[in-house]
């Protein structure tokens, strides 16, 4: 970043914070509480959470636009490469309704992209991310896969129920103090990439989720909301080798040519 860019953006930010302080006649007690709060956000390691909840959506809109959304704080590189038929790594008794997600990766002009990489991650049914929270084993519900010669993929996982941010730290404290809830709709995360295309960071959501219209992270877009189809007949379960009712849905990811 150039000196001019830093001075312009940081200068504007500082001016706007000073304007808000003046407008609301912030007291010394409030100022000291705010400083102490910011220190505790750092001590708790919650800066990635804090900044992604409040600000990533704006950066994302400017830089990705349609079909994309925020990455959030819980991406971990080096998730395992999966083998077909794709199943996200999960515990034997993983909680949640089974979900089969299928789809296609295409260029923005509509051509299917064979060999595109989907790097996928999600929380478990108790809203815990592996490699972040203690509970799930490493790389639980995280994996990488590729599209076939038709640009298509299919992966089995669980339907992610609606989600709350990690609790017990400064983030929860602030949301409670402001009377705001800490929920996001249930979601699946993806980074989709292919040679010659700009990688797409996005999430998929599900129709009917109670938090679609009030995501604490402001990261829902209409084109990312999928409809789940339930399959509960013995024939359907047999055909898929499933031992309990399951859901299916599909999505088309669109990648922009690089450059
Ligand atoms: C945020 C985003 C997520 O996807 C998530 O699971 C938790 C937090 C965020 O924007 O901070
Ligand atoms: Fe998430």
Give the distance, in angstroms, between the N- and C-terminal Cα atoms.
20 Å
CATH superfamily of the domain at 65-165 and 179-257: Aromatic compound dioxygenase
- Rg over CA atoms: 21 Å
Relative helix content:
25-40%
The total of helices stands at 6
Give the names of the bound compounds: 3,4-dihydroxybenzoic acid, fe (iii) ion
Enumerate the spans where pLDDT stays under 50 for 5 or more consecutive residues: none
3D shape? globular
Largest sheet: 5 strands, mixed
Beta-strand content estimate: 15-25%
Describe the structure.
With 259 residues, this protein is of the alpha/beta class. It has a domain at 65-165 and 179-257: Sandwich (Protocatechuate 3,4-Dioxygenase, subunit A). The protein is 27% helix and 24% strand. The protein is built from six helices and twelve strands. The strands form three sheets. Strands 1-5-2-12-11 form a five-stranded mixed β-sheet, with no helix packed on it. Strands 4-3-8-9-10 form a five-stranded mixed β-sheet, with no helix packed on it. Strands 6-7 form a two-stranded antiparallel ribbon. The longest helix has 21 residues, at 3-23. It is globular. The structure holds 3,4-dihydroxybenzoic acid and fe (iii) ion (FE). Residues 72, 74, 187, 189 line the site of fe (iii) ion (FE).
């Amino acid at each position: 970043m150039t000196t001019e860019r830093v001075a312009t953006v940081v200068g504007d930010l500082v001016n706007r914070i000073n304007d808000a302080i003046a407008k609301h006649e912030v007291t010394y007690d409030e100022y000291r509480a705010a400083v102490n709060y910011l220190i505790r956000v750092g001590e708790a390691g919650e800066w990635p959470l804090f900044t992604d909840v409040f600000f990533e959506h704006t950066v994302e809109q400017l830089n990705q636009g349609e079909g994309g959304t925020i990455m959030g704080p819980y991406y971990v590189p080096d998730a395992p490469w999966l083998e077909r038929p794709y199943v996200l790594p999960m515990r034997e008794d993983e909680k949640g309704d089974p979900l089969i997600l299928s789809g296609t990766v295409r260029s923005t002009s509509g051509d299917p992209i064979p060999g595109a990489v989907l790097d996928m991650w999600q929380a478990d049914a108790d809203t815990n991310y592996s490699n972040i929270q203690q509970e799930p084993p490493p790389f639980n519900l995280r994996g990488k896969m590729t599209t076939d010669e038709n640009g298509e993929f299919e992966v089995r996982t669980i339907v992610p129920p609606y989600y709350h941010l990690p609790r017990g730290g400064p983030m929860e404290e602030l949301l409670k103090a402001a009377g705001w809830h800490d929920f996001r709709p249930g979601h699946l995360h993806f980074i989709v990439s292919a040679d010659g295309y700009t990688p797409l960071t996005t999430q998929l959501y599900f129709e009917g989720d109670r938090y679609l219209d009030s995501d604490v992270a402001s990261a829902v877009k209409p084109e990312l909301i999928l409809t789940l189809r339930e399959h509960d007949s013995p024939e359907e379960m047999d055909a898929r080798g499933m031992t309990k009712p399951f859901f299916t849905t599909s999505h088309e990811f669109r990648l922009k040519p690089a450059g």
